[in-house]
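Consider today's protein:

***
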Amino acid sequence: MGFRLLAVFCGALLSASTIWASTNVLEAQKILNQLGYKAGPSDGVVGKKTINAIANYYTDQGSTFDGTIDSSELENLKATLKSKNLSLKIRAENLGITLSGHYIDKTLKESSGKYLLPSNSWFRGKINSDRGVFYKAGSAWGDWDSDGLLDYIGLGMGHRCGTGGTTGNSVVKEGREGCASFQTALWVPFIPFKVIKQEKRFEKLNVNKIFDFDGDRNIGYAANAARAIIEDFNGDGIDDIYPTNAQVQNIKGKFSYKGPNHILISDGQGKWKQSYHTGYLTDKKRKIYMGFSHGADAGDIDNDGDIDILTTEFAGVVCHYNDGNGNFNAKLCSNVNGSSMTTADFNNDGNLDMVVSADHYNPVYAKYSSQKYSNPKRQRTVLLLGDGKGTFYIKQKLEPLMDGKFMFSTVPEMTAFDFDNDGDADIISSVVGPNYSGSAWIAYENIGGQLRLADHNIFLKPLPEWQNPKVWGSMVKDEFRHPWNSYCHKSLLIDINDDGLMDALCSADVQRPKSPNLVLLNKGDMKFDILKPDEVTGWVRWLK
């Protein structure tokens, strides 16, 4: 009996010691990853990546790792992290996140300490009034003159198919609207502004003077430019502009999704010229990419030091490799199809990964939907890990948000960042139900390299009667002619209350009054609240 008690006691001591060691390792991994040392997933397990990371850390400190991760190592790491006082941008870079046009930094703060940001009424007056814009759809931010201060670009739907004096018409099939013939936008639907903070105004730039679509290569303009990738693709210190295009045609009863994707590269003199694109889905004559880029992000796919582009397509993910001068070669690099995506180094191994969504399989509601497509192998949201050479493999399938029986099965956008400041990349995402009915913001926490649904905020709640899919189908007959459509084209990152936790601002269609400029306020530990624009006036002055 005494021997058994002694064995139990020793086992308890061993277990406690193991838990303590694992806790030290877990916390050390988190800090190493925040510092950019790539310790692998924060899982409390000592592996080769963790050993290499902490050994490299001590080498940089002019010291040597003693071979054991204990409280001494943890105290050293904590002291270094505190002394570094890493900016949000550096933290993003350490996780392979580019913040390509969707981060609002503190250069937009006035002397009062408030951010100077456009209101929805400003969007209507300044963006919708432009002859090239049917309606404002999105926003992005970049530095147009290398002065270190953020400037703005308004993104819109272009005029075609009978709007704004154009010819032709649109048709509806299966609840989706598309142009009855192949047409590009008649005028440029993305409008840049220079931010003049001292005068509290945004100065509109003349697109006809600053954008060069290269004469005979000009096929017309992107008709559905709701999002943009803003990056310095040619390394001249000035941001370049890629308004992604997701235009739809319905020609003789068949959907077509081709349309021009303009990548405009700075010449260093206040103008931008369309670059050259080769490879997959390009117009060979004009050297323009013609894919359906509903989802897009940027990052260094092949670890060659320049920023590449990734876009979604029906056949899979397209990798656009940068030659260093802002010209791109497109290759199909994954057969995982999608309509939204985000990129980061989710497992902290130094290689770019991605999460790609083709929505979620929802067969019960599909039975009563105007859109009859239903495919369990194709409709999924998955984490794919990269090898640093352009190859990706599926690691995990993500779960959808449920409201009773109602599934938020459509995923318009996803955005990655370390939202809980623990050294790995998490995700927030704007999600809607089938046919864009109901709306919510959700958050996935990265736990040991796996993404787990951590929080949700429903801001356009599904009707109680929609628990019956047949009733839902009788009320929501298409994507756009019902009052329950409101979502974010992109979650713009901003630390709105300056507490060191990343929040988000909803970039949305101007005509959907429920969603533009909603704020997702980060409360810590992957918990969030939604605030309306008039509830954040202590932190923001809205331009009227």
The CA atoms of residues 404 and 467 lie 7 Å apart. The longest strand covers residues 450-460. The helical segments are 2-34, 48-60, 71-84, 88-94, 120-126, 207-210, 363-366, 469-475.
